[in-house]
Automatic annotation (TrEMBL):
Keywords: Carbohydrate metabolism, Hydrolase. One of its GO terms (molecular function) is glucosamine-6-phosphate deaminase activity. Signal peptide: none annotated. This is Glucosamine-6-phosphate deaminase. Pathway: Amino-sugar metabolism; N-acetylneuraminate degradation; D-fructose 6-phosphate from N-acetylneuraminate: step 5/5. It comes from Candidatus Mediterraneibacter stercoravium. The active site is at residues 67, 136, 138, 143. Its EC number is 3.5.99.6. It holds the Pfam family Glucosamine_iso. One of its GO terms (cellular component) is cytoplasm. The gene is nagB.
């Protein structure tokens, strides 16, 4: 694992964008695994800035997103499909047909999860997977559990995740209770993983993920077993790391 320390969120975002842009330049038709939430917004903004300057070309890039709320259609402004178009896809020259997000409107969980898993396989896998870190150690929507989920699946969101996400909705009652997400096994098959973490509130769980035991009770701890993980975090998030 390589660790890059940034002084703040802005520097973290720029360092992460550097890594993603290098992947695009080295392999123009790469498959990017993308994440949503507040953590990657600055990274996407930086990629857009470099695209606007003519430094990046997304015309051959393909993307697969980690997850999507079950029950939200694409036009819902809290869907991750909407999020990705707002923050990245509609701002660069990526071909819309080359961007993939789980279909939250598909009621048949088994059907949708199998379709998405096969889609990723058919693309040759993910070249670099961008991840954030939940306050309870989740990656994607893989919540603390008794075992690691191997493939794309439908999850029941924990109360802590619902609480963390309610700020994006009118109330906690409006937050979906289920989501489709890549499984831990799916994530671990990515050739490279880029984890971005910001803020003192994530310091404790980040330290547990990388210095504690590998356990499904801290899903991100499985990343200790990946051969190519890059962690980009600000000083606050790294404050509990052993030096």
């Amino acid at each position: 694992m390589r660790i890059y320390e940034a002084k703040d969120y802005q520097e973290m975002s720029r360092k992460a964008a550097n890594i993603l842009s290098a992947q695009i330049i080295l392999k123009p038709d790469c498959v990017l695994g993308l994440a949503t939430g507040s953590s990657p917004i600055g990274t996407y903004d930086q990629l857009v800035e470099w695209y606007d300057k003519g430094d990046l070309d997304f015309s051959e890039v393909r993307t697969v997103n980690l997850d999507e709320y079950k029950g939200l259609d694409r036009e819902n402004d809290q869907s991750y499909y909407y999020f990705m178009h707002k923050h990245l896809f509609d701002r660069v020259n990526i071909i819309p047909e080359n961007t993939y997000v789980p279909d939250g409107t598909e009621p048949d969980s088994g059907k949708e999860c199998a379709r998405y898993e096969e889609l990723i396989r058919s693309m040759g896998g993910v070249d670099i997977q961008l991840l954030g870190l939940g306050h309870n150690g989740h990656i994607g929507f893989n919540e603390p559990d008794s075992s690691f989920a191997r493939t794309t699946h439908c999850v029941d969101l924990t109360e802590s995740t619902i609480e963390a996400n309610k700020r994006f909705f009118a109330s906690a009652d409006d937050v979906p209770r289920q989501a489709y997400t890549m499984g831990i096994g799916t994530i671990m098959r990515a050739k490279k993983i880029l984890l971005i973490v910001s803020g003192e509130a994530k310091a404790e769980i980040l330290a547990r993920a990388f210095f504690g035991p590998v356990t499904p009770e801290v899903p991100a701890s499985i990343l200790q077993f990946h051969s190519d993980v890059v962690l980009v975090a600000d000083s606050a998030a790294l404050s509990k790391f052993s030096r």
